[in-house]
Every structure is written in structure tokens, then in C-alpha cells.
Amino acid sequence: MNVSISYDFQCQEKYGSRVNLENSCAVVIDVLRASTTICTLIELCNKIYITDCIEKANKIENSIKIGERNGKKIDGFNFGNSPVELLSNKLEIKKYVENGGNIVLTTTNGTRVLENISSNYTLIGSITNAKYVSKKACEIAFKSNKDITLVPAHRGGKFAIEDYICAGLIADYILKYSKEEIDSESFEGLIPSRTLTKTDWVRKVFESNSAKNLKILGYYEDILFSVSKNSQKSVGVYDKSLGIITSI
To answer: pTM score > 0.85 for this model?
Structure first.
């Protein structure tokens, strides 16, 4: 089994291009904040509609609309892309869903990356569920004879160190959970990201460009929540044909 990291969304020239990962179980990582928000929502509801387009989100009837553009809550939406805000309103959200309501999420970067990937298995990875998404990825890879590709979403085609760090954390757990030998040559490509996890990686996340933007916008608590390693057991899987994420 090969385990690798994708650099497709780090390059501005390739940003927005389709990426074929049909032979892999893909783990999409957008720490600040789409992945963390999705992990939070999956613990509150069974299904999340995903779109990269505000207009499409507005067409989903009977729905709580969640989203941001450049970090700011979209006008007319119920909530921004804030896991802390969602947890503060979890009773309202759960009641709405229990009464037949839908949840829809659109973000600047993370949901766009999801829609640009072609894979039979696309999991949502974050620092908050690193241990659990790693275990699920290994189970899927072994059962379906697939490779595992970690996909940092980065930030509009620019490097986002928090996603790279998360890839390293997940890679460490994959190495722990793998029941068969992983191709050593493929895993060598993950050494730089795994090395970062041996440093003060929390500080690096807080000093990232993404975090700086969130601090300016008043979302410091979201950053703090997003670095709480393994605090969420939920793992979402994306069904591109239906445009939804469900718990796996």
C-alpha cells in the first residue's frame, strides 16, 4: 500500500483543476476551518450538503445555511464556518434536523477542493479527528486494496502549514494502524510533514497566515478548538454524486 501526500492544491497554477484519485482513499484536510467544521456538524446531524457555490446553497430548501467567503459569514446565512459558533447553537441545529431540516455548507476553499477531487472514498481529516480518520482510511485501504492519499487543501493555491502539519499527524497514525507493510519509498515523501509534528506544531498553526486572518476577524476560539487533537471521533465521507457528507 502506498501512502502519499498531494501537492495539487498548493500550486496556484493547478488550483481549481480536477484531481483524479480513483485509486486512493483520499483524506481531505482543511484545518482552518472547513474540515473542523464538518467534523463538528457530523456529530450533530447525519447528513451535510456540500457546495462551492452560494447560489446552489440558497436553492437547498428547508435548510440551515452555513458558510463563509474569505473567513467572513455570508450575508443571509444562519452561521459562519465556525465550529465554536455551531457548538454554541448545537441544540437549535439538532432540533432543526430532527424536524426534517437540512444542513448546507459552503466555504471559500475546503468545499471547492472536495468538488475537484475524483475518488471512490473521500474522507474528511482534521487535527481534531486525526486518530480516527487515520484508522478509517486504513480500514478502507486494506478492504478495497487502495492506496491512501492525504490532500491538504491549503489556501487558494497557497501553502497552508496547518494542513501540512495535520497530514503529518495523520501519517503518524496510519503508520501505527497499518496491518501490512507500507511501501517505504512512498512514505518517505511524508517525512517533512511528519517532522513538523515533532516540533511545537500548535504554535506554528497559531502563527500561520490562515490563523492570522481568523484572529483579525475575531475567531481566535476557532483556532484554539481546531488544534485540540483527537477531540472528535466523527469521520465524514463525501459522496460527490449526491453532494453530501455523511458519517462513516
So the answer is: yes
